[in-house]
Amino acid sequence: MTQQPLNPDFDATVLGYPRIGADRELKKALEAHWAGKISLDELHAAAGQVQLADLTRLAGLGLDAAGGALPGDVAYYDQVLETTAALSAVPSRFSGVIGERIGTAEAFVLARGDEANAPLELTKWFDTNYHYLVPEIGPGTAFVADPERLVANHAAHAAAGFELRPTLVGPLTYLLLAKAEDGAPEGFSPLERLDDAVAAYASLLAALGAAGVKLVQLDEPGLVTEEGAKLAADGSTVTRVYSALAAVQSAPRLFVTSGYGTAGDPARPGHVQGELARAGVAVVHADLVRGAAPAAAHLGELNGATLVAGVVNSRNIWRNRLGESLAALRTLQAEVTEAGGALAVGTATSLQHVPHTVAAETALPEHLPAWLAFADEKVAEVVTLAKGLREGDAAIAAELAADAEAHAARAAFAGTSVAAVRERLAALTPEDLERADAEERRAAQAAALGLPPLPTTTIGSFPQTAEVRKARAGARSGALSEAEYEAFLKAEIERVVRFQEELGLDVLVHGEAERNDMVQYFAENFDGYAPTTRGWVQSYGSRSTRPAILWGDVSRPRAFTVPWISYAASLTEKPLKGMLTGPVTILAWSFVRDDQPLEVSAQQVALALRDEIEDLQAAGIGIIQVDEPALRELLPLRAEAQPDYLRWSVDSFRLATAGADTATQIHTHLCYSEFGEVVGAIDALDADVTSIEAARSRMEVTGDLAEFGFSRGIGPGVYDIHSPRVPSTEEIDELLAEALKRLTPEQLWVNPDCGLKTRAYPETEASLRHLVEAAAKARAAIAASV
Ligand code: MET
Ligand SMILES: [Zn+2]
């Protein structure tokens, strides 16, 4: 066994750690502060406690507290916002309310808006379900280094013996993720401001160095995108920027990470790391999970730098295959050492995408915990791998044995591969994805449903009132018996049905009161799926979600939505639309198994949904909506991988829905993204009616769809449900008129942007009244014009 010298600072690290606190303490403190219940000082103290607990845990798990192995990824709301604050990059539209400096209070104004200003836009961070606040950059945006918070955070923990490496989004990624502010000249790109931003980063580094910081982490995952890759050709922008930053007098050493894929040209993995090292960056990182391991040819350029090999998956919750990782690391180590560099073991990205610890889960099926690794278990894996690399297999013999055993048990477990599910998949034929001709369907559905033109409907959920949440919690804790809970839900369904009838909506829904979350509800009712109890993952700001774990072959033991939906239908003469969540969204918002292609898991979920649709139809439900809000979300970052994704994702929707009768109207619903780029896929879903978020973009997507020749039903949202604001009837009139410029009256449906579950009743009632009124006016106008 070779005894190579590893990194002089550390041989194991993680790029970041969940920031919300093991018990979501930061969420509670933030919301208490926003509600005026605790002061800013109390918030800082609470956040400091959370960070101290995290650092103590990380050091306890074996990361070198004094050697720079601990990430200083402090962020109360969002890591991109922290960088905006460190650069004092105040968007012009806030210049009246925010001075030159973005302190914590000012950062919250950017994050949450105020009476006069909408907050910064939230957008998905790469292909994750984390959302960051989009910087708004213009030709005049000031970039002024404000190191105060970073310095204070470093100093606070240095005193306790934790040598943090302050973490910022790197300048290239920061500007790649920014948008041109309103009023910037046509064609302006935030990257035009690169030199000014780099100057501010240089001042930040100088100040951090002066404060005794030894290592700073700059995250550059933007380099894995198509646009970012262009900045990373040899002799490129990457070289220019990082040569400048590495040359800053008395600056700390730099640690530049990528993550979420292969940085730069995917055919030349490692060249960006070589380029960074040549520029003077001391520690570079490569994502070995989503990305490819650096090619030996490029490691030659490392030249004394350290490569952090991101071998532990920080996006899933599965235990690492330690034996395989160790073998890959040994190969890399030989190449890196040969090149005069050093190797350290790390994670593919920050661990912010996984929950704190498996140990907190008390209700998982018995077989599952041993297969899993959340953040803490992943830290332990990184430490174990580094030890194995340093001291040889014998030093980690117990861990290797436990690992082999867990993986063998997982492979052999009955639910991992279920013959009945496999046989059903193997027997599928192309006809299983085909429905009758769209025109034939349209005629059959028109006859069966008898809807007016411009039918009005909602997207499914109605306000989840405190009573609804309380009843659900009561059912979970046992405070409410099964019979009591059922009676409660039936009463709630009846109330929602009567409410919709009174409003005069044309197609009713049951309101989804029984669902805590549109994906978790399905996970709870499918075999092969397990919800967690404490597995919170930050989605944005103080918000977290609790993705369920898809661990085995999926099937549906019994119909579960049918009782509620058919009960709702029994209460009304109007058509009632059944609600399901589609396969892609179910996968996108879960932790999925890593031992088979996503495509196969999608097919299994699709077949389970197909069974539910058959049962809904048999119960007399003539309209069924299968929501796919995450369709765009899983689209791969790299263009070359997109067609294959679009093929299987569309096919999984069709597999779920194509068993429906010709007269059954299949709807889908899309939101949370811009769908302009994927209209071809939306068309290929072959849904009879598609509702899609559109109010904020003023019906923009209707243009894309019309241009594409989309001919089936379409309900562009006319009411933005993301805020309590009530749209006026006139406003909805205008949106409908706008939509009718491009869509035919036979095509157009009238509905809100999305479900109403986060709204309260007063604004919901007022908004839906205006929506029904506007639809009636538009109908009358159409009738008068023929
Ligand atoms: C995020 S899409 C939500 C769709 C779901 N049917 C609802 O109305 O809540
Ligand atoms: Zn939606």
From TrEMBL:
Residues 13-335 form the Cobalamin-independent methionine synthase MetE N-terminal domain. The active site is at residue 722. L-methionine binds at residues 459-461, 512, 627. It is an enzyme of class 2 (transferase). Residues 454-776 form the Cobalamin-independent methionine synthase MetE C-terminal/archaeal domain. 5-methyltetrahydropteroyltri-L-glutamate binds at residues 27, 129, 589. Keywords: Amino-acid biosynthesis, Metal-binding, Methionine biosynthesis, Methyltransferase, Repeat, Transferase, Zinc. Binds 2 Zn(2+) ions per subunit. Its cofactor is Zn(2+). It holds the Pfam family Meth_synt_1. Its EC number is 2.1.1.14. One of its GO terms (molecular function) is zinc ion binding. InterPro entries: Cbl-indep_Met_Synth_N, Cobalamin-indep_Met_synthase, Met_Synth_C/arc, UROD/MetE-like_sf. Zn(2+) binds at residues 669, 671, 693, 754. Pathway: Amino-acid biosynthesis; L-methionine biosynthesis via de novo pathway; L-methionine from L-homocysteine (MetE route): step 1/1. L-homocysteine binds at residues 459-461, 627. One of its GO terms (biological process) is methionine biosynthetic process. Belongs to the vitamin-B12 independent methionine synthase family. Catalyzes the transfer of a methyl group from 5-methyltetrahydrofolate to homocysteine resulting in methionine formation. This is 5-methyltetrahydropteroyltriglutamate--homocysteine S-methyltransferase. The lineage of its organism: Bacteria, Bacillati, Actinomycetota, Actinomycetes, Micrococcales.
